[in-house]
Amino acid sequence: MTDSRTSSTGKRRGRAMLIMAVCALMWSIGGIFIKLISWSPLLIAGTRSLIAAAIIGLYMLVTKTPFKLRGYSVGAGIGLSCSCMFFVMANKLTTAANAIVLQYAAPVFILIMTSLIFKQKLHRKEIITVAITMAGIILFFFDQLSPGNIIGNIFGILAGVFLALMFVMTGQARNDDSIRMSGILIAHCLTAIVGIPLGIPGTSSVNGEEIFFLIILGVFQLGIPYVLYAIASGDCPPLACSLIGMLEPLFNPVWVALFIGEMPGGFALAGSLIIICAVTWWCINESRSAPEDSC
């Protein structure tokens, strides 16, 4: 009986990890299509979030996940909404590699936020992680010093800061999946409400191909992956989710390089390697010290 239960648990975990890998790979296609759409960044962000919100709302309806308008879900929604908008703006102004890796520095911003807001003392390994990651971020600014790229890098950092805010808010709600899913739905609704009206004046033309690319972003890069993440997170350990999620910053610039020919500079590549290694190291150590916590 024990062996059967263990085998069943192992199969569920393996399936969840596979779903999480598919989810991360689907997230990673964002850079390609954002680059291929000529619309203003806010219109891209707002329209893809409108499509994603419909899919996530339908999933919550089918699974009977209650919508909770609470302080933590609203805070998470604001954080993720701002992250989505800054991420698209960063993709338009700097390389896709810079945008995604700077956003993925979010765990370090989580450490800083919990220290400043909740007065949690940073331990030595956390201080080391913050210092190494910040050093990696600085390298991005040695690469392409045109005003647009500098602003794009700053937007990438802000995307990471607001993504960290989302994680901090959902973390305070503990393991309440309805708070997390409600926050995601609020985020995409807010992004649509803000992005579409503000983005329309900055968009000069719309064609069928770009609408098709936008549908791909809304359905396959945001909507379905968030549903897959919700399914996977039930059986996939937090550390595995975090590490498998690293496929996104690894593959995002690869797709852009293959299909568009955009290559990050040498300093940015070095910074990317430093940030990904530092965040991975911290996630592993955090899991060992507190297996039940998510990084």
TrEMBL record:
Coiled-coil zones: none
Pfam families, A to Z: EamA
Any single GO CC term annotated in Swiss-Prot or TrEMBL for this entry: membrane
Keywords: Membrane, Transmembrane, Transmembrane helix
TM regions (residue ranges): 16-37, 43-62, 69-90, 96-118, 127-144, 150-169, 181-200, 212-232, 239-260, 266-284
EamA domain mapped to chain residues: 16-141, 151-280
Family per similarity comment: Belongs to the EamA transporter family.
Protein name: EamA family transporter
Organism: Candidatus Allocopromorpha excrementigallinarum
Organism ancestry: Bacteria, Bacillati, Bacillota, Clostridia, Eubacteriales
